[in-house]
TrEMBL record:
Its EC number is 3.8.1.2. It is an enzyme of class 3 (hydrolase). This is 2-haloacid dehalogenase. One of its GO terms (molecular function) is (S)-2-haloacid dehalogenase activity. Belongs to the HAD-like hydrolase superfamily. S-2-haloalkanoic acid dehalogenase family. Pfam families: Hydrolase (PF00702). It comes from Microlunatus antarcticus. It comes from the Bacteria. Keywords: Hydrolase. InterPro entries: 2-HAD, HAD-like_sf, HAD-SF_hydro_IA, HAD_sf, PGP-like_dom2, S-2-haloacid_dehalogenase. The keyword Plastid does not apply.
Length: 234
């Protein structure tokens, strides 16, 4: 298969560049332990938060509910998850703490170095469902060097809605085929592919393997992506 030659690499952030699942789990266990909740219950809250957040974003994108920011939807998801698991409601301070954790998710070990190599060779752009301020603080604390960090917020939709990917395409003023979406989520890459973007699947923990031959590239991490695209070592 010929090596893809995109002009721009557009990266999903949550799960692809940073460990959001581990970050939410760790923060939820720590926060709920301070009020005496069971660790296993806290782990269930963390998992349920992700499920509720995904559904809330889907409902916003479909028009089933009014627009709300990623931050507000995450707060709603936290409260719903706590209720689902059968724990007492959280006070406002704990909810805010579990919302703000987005800003401190840790990058995967290869992320900063991989982006650093790739940005000398291609346009390197973040495209996240997170709010702009969340993405800015996350990039700061994680040492993530983008040429441009974009939130899907201007589209008032969330990936994998087509309007979300159009934020990147329109901002970069490129044809979809000149852009490669890089993500650890099959659903994200399928959404991008429907608009004609090239696709790269990054294998991360907590994500299943991709269907065979569905994507233009499959890599184990961002350093392997840099190698595949011929980015110089640094």
């Amino acid at each position: 298969m010929p090596v893809p030659r995109p002009r721009a690499l557009v990266f999903d952030v949550m799960g692809t560049v940073v460990d959001d699942v581990g970050g939410v789990r760790e923060a939820t266990v720590a926060a709920l332990a301070r009020r005496g909740d069971d660790e296993q219950a806290a782990i269930r809250v963390a998992a349920a938060t992700a499920t509720h957040l995904t559904e809330l974003m889907r409902r916003v994108s479909s028009g089933d509910r009014p627009w709300a920011s990623h931050r507000d939807l995450r707060a709603e998801a936290v409260r719903a998850a706590v209720s689902e698991v059968g724990l007492a409601p959280l006070d406002g301070g704990l909810v805010a703490q579990l919302v703000d954790v987005v800003e401190t998710f840790k990058p995967w070990p290869d992320s900063a170095a991989g982006l650093d190599r790739l940005r000398t060779h291609r346009l390197v752009v973040a495209l996240s469902n997170a709010d702009p301020d969340e993405l800015a603080f996350l990039s700061l604390t994680g040492g993530l060097a983008w040429h441009l960090a974009l939130s899907t917020r201007p589209s008032q939709a969330f990936k994998p809605d087509p309007r979300a990917y159009e934020v990147a395409i329109d901002t970069l003023d490129l044809r979809p085929g000149q852009v490669m979406m890089v993500a650890a989520h099959v659903w994200d890459l399928r959404g991008a592919a429907r608009l004609g973007l090239q696709t790269c699947y990054v294998q991360r923990p907590d994500e299943g393997p991709p269907p065979e031959d569905e994507f233009d590239l499959v890599v184990s991490d961002l350093l392997e992506l840099a190698d595949a695209l011929g980015a110089p070592a640094r």
